[in-house]
């Protein structure tokens, strides 16, 4: 049988990409504040939720294989992936639902900096 790998899109949030973030986020230390990690994780869950709306559902296995992972203390990258063996093929080749994860990321990018800053402010120190 062919070797399969989990399919994932990763997106990074860099200080230079988010000029409107509050001073608090722009001056991050080497360890990400817990509140920022929570906000990042919540954003990744929102991406996953959108992707699950767009994913084609035949058996539900692909839908259920979606995962969002908690960001580490030192790395502001979040990881959203679908673990079904055929996830990448469906993402790239499905006749009507291709790019389900990419579409979700692209829809969430506008306003992401604002949402992150607001959520960190809500969560407090």
Task: Describe this entry's structure for a reader.
With 125 residues, the protein is α+β, with helices and mostly antiparallel strands. Helix 2 (34-54) packs across helix 5 and helix 2 (34-54) crosses helix 6 (112-123). It has helices at residues 23-26, 34-54, 61-64, 87-93, 100-108, 112-123, and strands at residues 7-12, 66-69, 77-82. The model has no long low-confidence stretch (mean pLDDT 82). The chain is elongated.
Features:
single chain, 125 residues, elongated
- Residues in helices, as a percent range: 40-55%
Number of strands: 3
Number of helices: 6
Uncertain runs: none
- Radius of gyration from CA coordinates: 16 Å
The whole-number mean of residue pLDDT values reads 82
The arrangement of helices and strands along the chain is EHHHEEHHH
Which range does the strand content fall in?
Answer: 5-15%
Strand order of the largest sheet: 1-3-2
Give a quick rundown of the structure.
This protein has helices at residues 23-26, 34-54, 61-64, 87-93, 100-108, 112-123; strands at residues 7-12, 66-69, 77-82. It is of the alpha+beta class and 125 residues long.
Indicate the topology.
Layout: E1 7-12, H1 23-26, H2 34-54, H3 61-64, E2 66-69, E3 77-82, H4 87-93, H5 100-108, H6 112-123
Antiparallel strand pairs: 1-3, 2-3
């Amino acid at each position: 049988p062919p070797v399969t790998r989990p399919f994932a899109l990763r997106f990074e949030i860099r200080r230079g990409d988010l000029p409107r973030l509050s001073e608090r986020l722009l001056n991050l230390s080497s360890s990400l504040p817990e509140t920022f990690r929570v906000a990042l994780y919540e954003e990744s869950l929102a991406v996953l939720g959108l992707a699950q709306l767009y994913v084609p559902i035949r058996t539900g296995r692909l839908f259920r294989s979606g995962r969002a992972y908690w960001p580490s203390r030192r790395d502001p990258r979040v990881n959203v992936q679908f673990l079904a063996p055929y996830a990448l093929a469906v993402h790239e080749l499905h006749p009507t639902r291709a790019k389900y994860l990419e579409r979700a990321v692209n829809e969430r990018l506008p306003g992401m900096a604002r949402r992150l800053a607001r959520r960190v402010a809500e969560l407090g120190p």
